[in-house]
Structures are given as C-alpha cells and as structure tokens.
Amino acid sequence: MQTILTTSNDKTLKSLGLGYLTFGIHFAHSDLSGFDVCPDASEGCKASCLDFAGRGQMGNVKEARIEKTKTFFANIPAFMERLIEEIQKGIEYAAKKDLTACFRLNLTSDVKWERIKHNGKTIFEHFPNHQFYDYSKTYSRLNLGIPNYHLTFSRSESPLNHVHCALALNAGHNIAAVFSTKKGFDLPSEYNGKEVIDGDKHDLRFIDKRGVIVGLRAKGPARQDKSGFVIHV
Q1: What distance in Å separates the CA atoms of residue 78 and residue 151, rounded to the nearest whole number?
Q2: pLDDT number for residue 30
Q3: Counting CB atoms within 10 angstroms of each CB, which of 11, 15, 36, 75 has the fewest?
C-alpha cells in the first residue's frame, strides 16, 4: 500500500511558520474513483475542486489518489490500521522538528470519519490529545461535539447551502467561501454583513476566530467558474 498521509500540500505547508506540521489525505474527489467521497458536493464544487489544481493535474498523481481511495473502500479495517501507524509516526516526526502535528484527513474529500471505528474507537478517540480539522459541505456534521475535531462549513452555489451557511454563521461556526480575488490582492473585508478573514495565509482553521467567513482565492479550475460557486467581487 502507498503511503496514506502527505505533508506536501502547498496550503498546509504555510502552517509551518505557526509551529504546526499538517498531515493529510488526498483521496480522489467526488466519485472519480467509483466511490463517492463527497456526498454533498455541488456541481460547481466538483468542477472547481482543488484535486484538479497543482500536482493534482499530473496523471500519475491522479492515478495514485484513485488507487488510494479504492484501497480505503476495499478494506477499511486494514486502511485504518495503517493510518493509525502513520499518524503515530507523524506525531513523533513533528516532535523531533519542534513542531506540533495536526491532521486534515479530507484534503480533497468529505469522508465522515466520525462514523468509522477501529478496535471500537474513532480516529479522534485513538489520538484525543491531537488536533484534527476539515472543511465539510455536510451541515449536520457541524455539531458532532468532538473536542479535537474542528469543521469549517464550505459554501457552494446551492440555495440550500446558502441557508445552511447563514445558520452556521449565526450559531458561531465559520464558513469557507471562494472569491474571485486574484493572488496578491486583498479579499473583501466583509460579505453579506459578516467579517471575512484571509484563509490563504494558513490552513489552520481551528485557530480562526469564530463566526467569520474564511475567504479563499479561486485557484485552478475555480478561476473559470460560472456556476456561482465562486463569489465574484
């Protein structure tokens, strides 16, 4: 089996300056592998997915992500056993570098990790003293009550999603929204009356203030979006 965790994501590498080393999983997004790992993704989200950006454009990288996804679904217990081993090694490696390990298991997916148990425990329960975080388009996941798992709700072009975004913000959760703002230019300071923070400065969403919009600049295929997934400013 290929290595499960990666530290080479361009966005998560920005966290090094804040003392964190993020380990993540790149699955093949949506149903690209034949298994749907993004059940609530909109059409705009699928077309704009960062799975198609950066190294994700390379054929061998796409194939590796598809194979990793298939391996996960083919034998979840074996995958989880390997994941636990790699997380432990990641924690030890980060400590040697005087960094704090944190984990984003859905870099290009929206797997409900809270539903998967190995030896009677979720991955969060196996490592209760370490921080996990993700973005999610599944509104019901925002209130899981898992102390070491932080979720940022992700905006799409769907009207129902917009309702969920408003509810999430009013409840003190954060939402991530993609803007047409180009690299090197400032994001809007607010949108729909809510403060916008620059989510491109780092990926450590669990240290963000609460009740704000995490603004992200359109990257890769998202620059061509016409669906409404990207907010044009």
Answers
A1: 26
A2: 86
A3: 75
- Residues of the chain under the 50 pLDDT cut: 56
Which residues, 6+ apart, have CB-to-CB distance to 73 below 8 Å? Answer: 33, 35
Tell me if 102 sits within 8 A of 5, measured CB to CB. no
Distance CA 94, CA 161 (A): 37
Question: For residue 135, which of 158, 151, 157 has the smallest C-alpha distance?
Answer: 151
Question: DSSP H helical segments within 28-143, as ranges?
Answer: 43-48, 59-74, 76-96, 123-126
Could you give the CA distance from residue 225 to residue 218 in angstroms, rounded to a whole number?
9
Phi, psi dihedrals of residue 40, rounded to the nearest 5° = -110, 20
Rounded CA separation 193/191 (Å): 5
Q: What angle do CA 203, 141, 100 make, to 5 degrees?
A: 35
Q: Are strands 190-191 and 194-198 parallel, antiparallel or unpaired?
A: antiparallel
